[in-house]
Amino acid sequence: TGYITLDEGYGNTGACESAITYIDGDKGILRYRGYAIEELAEKSRFVEVAYLLLHGELPKAEQLLQFSTRLNESSIIHEDMHHFFNGFPRGSHPMGILATMVASLSTFYPIPDELDSATEIQIVANLVSQVRTIAAFSYKKSIGEPLIYPSYKLKYTRNFLNMMFASPVRDYELDEDIVRAIDMFFILHADHEQNCSTSSVRTAGSSMANVYAVASAGICALWGPRHGGANQQVIQMLEQIHADGGDGTEFINQAKDKNSTSRLMGFGHRVYKNFDPRAQVLKQQCDKLLNKSGMTDPLFDIARRLEEIALKDDYFISRKLYPNVDFYSGLILRAAGIPTNMFTVLFAIGRMPGWLAHWREMLHAKQVTITRPRQIYVGETLRRYQDVDQRS
Ligand code: CMC
């Protein structure tokens, strides 16, 4: 094993070449296809950003219309899939449902061994559009309300919120500011180069596995509390602080305690060692949204105070731990009425174009190399087999 270098968690290993997303962790820079995240968050819309990630260029008006229409036309899931929702036990985590349902798309939408570009584009449209339908349906099932189908009249984010919150028995009016905030949330989550879930997509995809199963692998990896699952945990932590009436010092002390496994959720990042630009945009967006009349949230003040305390603490300063994308994002989702257990599902909806952009980039590379890392073996050397009655 002399030539194998140990790099746990691949912190220093470039696993591929990619032209999709650029990050400079020291300077807090994030760009999709060369465009600054701050500019995209301010001026663009999620569907446009999805096109940019997938195709490398911002769409012209005609291309955007075509893409958007295709997403609408691909948004319905096979009727027979509806039965599956009834099979999950009550209280199932929506991420478990999402991963299962997305993998099951492989059985309803079989794909040929050899992909032509038309099929590839349709697969991408199915996944980007249907992940949103499945997410909304799983929520409706969980609260026992009738499913609201996607509408060809509504654009992507509006359509999603309508499927989540409209009902045949009550009026539901979409709030423009909420639609914009959720759309921005999706933009900020759309890609982040070789993070845990995207690496899982590339790893599973490198065996040429069915792409619906590959997308499901991404969802499974995202679920963990150290990755996308952190957004749910942040809100649970803030709710706990609110209920206890403290300022969060207890959570900070626990996170600093090396005898405990707990961490300050929404803090720290493998790549950003100064600030996470997504967290800054989200904090501003929170401020804007929660300043609207009737939308205040005591958890926002708690979050700001907690950030202040942590940023003055030597433990966090010396380890360069700053708020990450998950620290403020949950407050926006709460303001939109999204239940806490759906937060990571919304992350998955946002990340789907990024996963697929990486899958396509890998597929079209000169050569697809199967992901197969080596290891440093630290187990037993050769041992002699003993019959069962001779084992001590
Ligand atoms: N609270 C307390 N200590 C922390 C934290 C935290 N949130 N994050 C890192 N540390 C400590 C860690 O214990 C270690 O200390 P020491 O050097 O004394 O052993 C040091 O900082 C370096 O940590 P690491 O685990 O080597 O860093 P990493 O790059 O492997 O981990 C991370 C990055 C994001 C997994 C980690 O910071 C973490 O678990 N954060 C909390 C969970 C979270 O917010 N995740 C969302 C990440 S951003 C969005 C996404 O990817 O989904």
TrEMBL record:
Enumerate the GO terms in the molecular function aspect. Answer: citrate synthase activity
Q: Which InterPro entries match?
A: Citrate_synth-like_lrg_a-sub (IPR016142), Citrate_synth-like_sm_a-sub (IPR016143), Citrate_synthase (IPR002020), Citrate_synthase_AS (IPR019810), Citrate_synthase_bac-typ (IPR024176), Citrate_synthase_sf (IPR036969), Citrate_synthase_typ-I (IPR010953)
Recorded catalytic reaction(s): these are: oxaloacetate + acetyl-CoA + H2O = citrate + CoA + H(+)
Q: Which UniProt keywords apply?
A: Acyltransferase, Transferase, Tricarboxylic acid cycle
The keyword Ribosomal protein appears for this protein:
no
Please provide one cellular component term from the Gene Ontology annotations of this protein. Answer: cytoplasm
Which BP terms in the Gene Ontology apply to this protein? tricarboxylic acid cycle
* Pathway, per record: Carbohydrate metabolism; tricarboxylic acid cycle; isocitrate from oxaloacetate: step 1/2
Active site annotated at which positions?
Answer: H269, D326
| Superkingdom, natural source | Bacteria
> Which family does the record assign?
Belongs to the citrate synthase family.
Give the matching NCBIfam families: cit_synth_I, PRK05614.1
Q: What's the protein here called?
A: Citrate synthase
